[in-house]
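User: What would this chain look like folded?
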Amino acid sequence: MPWISLVIAGLLEVVWATAMKQSNGFTRLWPSLITLGAMLISFGLLSWSMRALPLGTAYMVWTGIGAVGAFLAGVAIYGEALTTGRILAALLIVSGLVLMKLSSP
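Assistant: Here's the prediction, encoded as structure tokens.
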């Protein structure tokens, strides 16, 4: 269950990062509220997951899901560049996440 909560927390990190972009510096109400709500739930689930998972593992997986997810959201929603270097960087992050999961107790 801690791993499921951690993955959901990571996905909510993507939600709040995307909503934050849409909030235009917290000048738009609904995206700002979505940002704050998703942040609170994401942090709460991360905190809950850390009761059973090592700090380094939990934090790395959470930020990794957020980083790769935000990269994919940027490409899909905002038309950001999908270059070889950016794809390689995302693959390296995913590789690190898999290795961290495999080496965790």
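The CA atoms of residues 57 and 103 lie 9 Å apart. If you want, I can go into more detail on any region.
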